[in-house]
Structures are given as structure tokens and as C-alpha cells.
Design a protein that fits this description.
This protein has 456 residues and is an alpha/beta fold. The protein contains 16 helices and twelve strands. Bound molecules: guanosine-5'-triphosphate and magnesium ion (MG).
């Protein structure tokens, strides 16, 4: 192993910056940068001088973490220097002159993983802590860093290995009719593993939304108040609102947080038979967004009947994902109207409707609440300690393991040789090991760690 170094804080003007080095040459590097001994795990204030010119580089706080009690498990040097454009660069350069090479993205965490300081799920949790933008993902990442998910995977792996051990007798004594372990008990143990994996997989869809944000598309006829609703949900005037139908031509996206959950909110062009080419393209874009939407807010003014085309449009959408937003509810009240009449033809069955006024803010709280409940009801129902599956990689491995255990059950049902059936259990256990990173193919590791920033 060689010694790596990098600036660990973001570039730009700041009070301090942190430059780190890790590897076997750290002790030697410190000798060439600082006068006097630096004790382990005790921050000290020192002048850092350039190892060749002897010029003062900066006055810094130095912390030395001798192996194995460090983030990477190797000798680590952490220098807190002044922030800004120059100091961190000059400090890094001095450390490199003294014998370190530039670190690659995620290389510190990769070393921590290789030295058994973290499993792969914990390394990914660190990535989420750095990249995540919603509190809900942040909380899930903290639980994952605390081995919440790892522990669950450990248990599942142990349960699969236990199934394997139950099969040993059948493999060793294939001619016995009935071994000391009844066949039903082996089946029941495998079925239990399947249902536990499926339980965990139930969190996968929402877990992914925690990272991506639930794609929420605002659609409806021109001039119904879509952009006004978009601005109201954003909390500031993000898009243009006019009384001219056809104002919005393009899809406009904003990431917002509602009750700590992330949403990608999209305003679109009004849906109608288009007069102009630009608007036609806008409507096409709206349709494309709708095809991928997790949630749709279909807008129509309060107090008027939906027209046939609107009903037809709603009919084509998944009722669960759609909310019919009755906009401009203040106008109905101002005109002394009756309780707003949904009119005929009726919205298709099962579509919930809400009255909202972007002007007065009435109904917005209920709409926000509905969005959170529609996209994240499963996560809300979980207790605070429950681990979540938040990455495609996790879901893929879990599904793979489940399918192998199902194949094991199928092979037993078909009375295949027990050692043949058991190969599926081995494959399932391996999928779990890969998930934890106990076994880590190089390309998998390269993929995970390349997502990190340099210095992490
Ligand atoms: N009274 C009242 N007027 C509203 C409300 N929301 C929107 N409007 C008005 O309705 C008109 C259209 O609003 P927009 O938000 O631009 O409507 P849109 O659906 O985005 O329109 P296009 O982009 O042209 O499809 C504007 O004159 C708004 O001021 C509301 O809650 N109450
Ligand atoms: Mg608009």
C-alpha cells in the first residue's frame, strides 16, 4: 500500500479546510513537515513547512491517528489549515512532496472497507450522508451507518446457512427415507427466509424515492392555475404566471421537501390540441413526464364540470397516483357559490379530489399532506429503527437471493437430488455476502467507490 493524500473539504472560501493523508509513510511525512514529535490522537498547533524549500506554508492543527485506530485503519494524518484557494492546495502539495500521491475518489473509504472498518452498506451510507438532500434519507443513512441494514442482512445470511446445515443429513444419507430433520422443517425454514426477504423488499420502492425524490407532475388544461400551484408548493415565484392560456411551454422542475421527504415537482404546458409548434412540443414533453410520474396533480378549476376530454385523460392514469386538484377555490367562495360542484361527467372512480387556492393558500396543507402520504405511506408506517432498502443494488441482490431460495424449494418439490437443490442456497448466501461486501468483485467495488468525492 502506498500513501495517499487529498483535500477533504469543499473548495472555496472558508474558515478552515482539512487535508488528509493515509498510509505507511505518514509518520515519515510528519517528520519532514513539522518540528518535534506529534503524539497520537492529540491535536496540536504547528507550523507546517515545505519539505524541500523549508518555507512556512501555514499554521495548522495536526492530528495523527496511528493504525489501526483511524478511519482507514492505516496511519492517518489530518491537517486542519486555513480555508480558501491557496492554503489547502499548498498543504496538499507539501504532503505530496514529502511522499504521498493524490487519492482517487472514495479511496479513503475504500481502504476503510478493505481494512474491515466498514462493510459495503456502511460505505454507501456515508455516500448518502454526504450527497443526500432530504432529512428522511439522512435518517435512513444514519441507521445504515449504525449497521441497521447490515445486521438484517447478517441475520438473513445466517438463516440461509442454517437451511444449508439442515440439508446436510439428506445429502450425506440420500437413501434414508426420513432423516432426523423432517423435510417439512427444512421447507418451512426456507419459506421463512423468503418472507423475511420480501418484507425487506417492501421498502425498496419508497427507499429509492427517498434518494431520487417522488416525481410529481402538475398537469391539466391551459390556464387552470398549474404554474400558480407549482409556485405555491415551491414557496416562491419560480415560474411565470399570466392570464394567457399557453404561458408555460416547457417542463420546469424543482426539488422540494415536504415533511422531510423529497419530491421532484414538475410544471408542464397545458394539455390541449395545440395551435403552435412550440406549444405542441411542450405538450409532448408533458406527456413524457406523465409516463414516468410517481404522482400526478391533475388541475381543473373548482365549481365547474370536467369536460369529456379531461375525464378521458384521467381515465388513462393510475387512480392511486392521481389527485384531482380543484384550483382557484377562492373564486367559488367569492361568488357566494354553493359548495363546489364537481359536475358531470364525474371524475373516474377512486380519484381523490381536493380544493385548493394558490391565491389564499387554502387547501395547500391538505395537498402537501396527501402527497407525502401517497408517496411515502410505507416509510411513515415503519418504526423509526426499521432499516430501509434505498439502492437498486440492494434490491437487486435481495431479489436474487429470494429467487435462489425459491428455486431451492422448487427443486425439493421436484425431488431433485438434495445436493443439487442446495446449490441454490449457496447462491443465495453469496448474494447476501455480496450485498454486505464480504465478497466484493472488483467491478462492484470500483462502481461503489467511484461515486465518492476525492478526499472521502
Ligand atoms: N383567483 C385565483 N386565480 C388564480 C389562482 N391560481 C391561478 N390563478 C390565475 O389563473 C391564471 C392562470 O394561472 P397559471 O398559473 O398561469 O395557469 P397555468 O395552468 O399554468 O396556465 P398555462 O401555463 O397557460 O397552461 C392567472 O391569471 C392566475 O393569476 C387561484 O388560486 N385563485
Ligand atoms: Mg403555466
Amino acid at each position: 500500500m502506498d500513501t495517499i493524500a487529498a483535500i477533504s473539504t469543499a473548495p472555496g472560501r472558508s474558515a478552515i479546510a482539512v487535508v488528509r493523508a493515509s498510509g505507511p509513510d505518514v509518520a515519515g511525512i510528519m517528520t519532514s513537515l513539522f518540528k518535534g514529535q506529534v503524539q497520537g490522537r492529540k491535536p496540536v498547533l504547528r507550523w507546517l513547512t515545505h519539505p524541500e524549500s523549508g518555507d512556512a506554508v501555514d499554521r495548522v492543527l495536526v492530528t495523527y491517528y496511528p493504525a489501526p485506530h483511524s478511519y482507514t485503519g492505516e496511519d492517518v494524518l489530518e491537517v486542519s489549515c486555513h480555508g480558501g484557494a491557496l492554503s489547502p492546495q499548498l498543504v496538499l502539495e507539501a504532503i505530496q512532496t514529502a511522499g504521498a500521491r493524490p487519492a482517487e475518489p472514495g479511496e479513503f473509504t475504500r481502504r476503510a472497507y478493505l481494512n474491515g472498518k466498514l462493510d459495503l452498506l456502511q460505505a454507501e451510507a456515508i455516500l448518502d450522508l454526504v450527497d443526500g438532500r432530504s432529512l428522511a434519507l439522512h435518517r435512513a443513512a444514519l441507521r445504515q451507518l449504525d449497521r441497521g441494514l447490515s445486521q438484517r442482512i447478517d441475520e438473513l445470511r445466517a438463516a440461509i446457512v442454517h437451511c444449508e446445515s439442515l440439508c446436510v443429513y439428506e445429502i450425506d444419507f440420500p437413501d434414508e427415507d426420513e432423516g432426523p430433520i423432517p423435510a417439512e422443517r427444512i421447507d418451512a425454514a426456507a419459506e421463512d427466509v423468503v418472507s423475511r426477504i420480501e418484507h425487506l423488499l417492501e421498502t425498496a420502492v419508497e427507499g429509492e424515492l427517498l434518494r431520487e425524490g417522488a416525481l410529481t407532475v402538475i398537469a391539466g388544461r391551459p390556464n387552470v392555475g398549474k404554474s400558480s400551484l407549482f409556485n405555491a408548493l415551491c414557496g416562491f415565484e419560480r415560474v411565470i404566471v399570466t392570464d394567457q392560456p399557453g404561458t408555460t411551454r416547457d417542463a420546469i422542475e424543482a426539488v422540494i421537501t415536504l415533511s422531510d421527504f423529497p419530491f421532484r415537482l414538475v410544471d408542464t404546458a397545458g394539455l390541449r390540441e395545440p395551435p403552435g409548434a412550440v406549444e405542441r412540443i411542450g405538450i409532448e414533453v408533458a406527456r413524457r413526464y406523465l409516463a414516468g410520474a410517481d404522482l400526478v396533480l391533475f388541475c381543473a378549476e373548482a365549481g365547474r364540470a370536467l369536460d369529456a376530454e379531461e375525464v378521458q385523460f384521467l381515465d388513462r392514469l393510475d387512480a392511486q397516483a392521481v389527485t384531482l386538484v380543484r384550483t382557484k377555490a377562492d373564486q367559488v367562495e367569492a361568488s357566494g357559490g354553493q359548495p363546489p360542484d364537481e359536475g358531470t361527467p364525474r371524475a373516474p372512480l377512486g380519484i381523490e379530489s381536493l380544493h385548493v387556492s394558490a391565491l389564499t393558500g387554502a387547501g395547500l396543507a391538505a395537498l402537501r399532506d396527501r402527497l407525502v402520504r401517497s408517496a411515502f405511506s410505507g416509510t411513515l408506517a415503519l418504526d423509526a429503527e426499521a432499516p430501509l432498502v434505498t439502492r437498486k443494488r440492494h434490491a437487486r441482490q435481495l431479489r436474487g437471493a429470494r429467487d435462489e431460495v425459491l428455486a431451492f424449494l422448487e427443486a425439493r418439490a421436484q425431488k431433485l437430488a438434495p445436493e443439487v437443490a442446495a446449490t441454490h442456497l449457496r447462491a443465495a448466501a453469496q448474494a447476501m455476502e455480496e450485498l454486505l461486501g464480504v465478497i466484493g468483485p472488483d467491478d462492484l467495488l470500483a462502481h461503489v467507490f467511484s461515486q465518492f468525492c476525492i478526499g472521502k
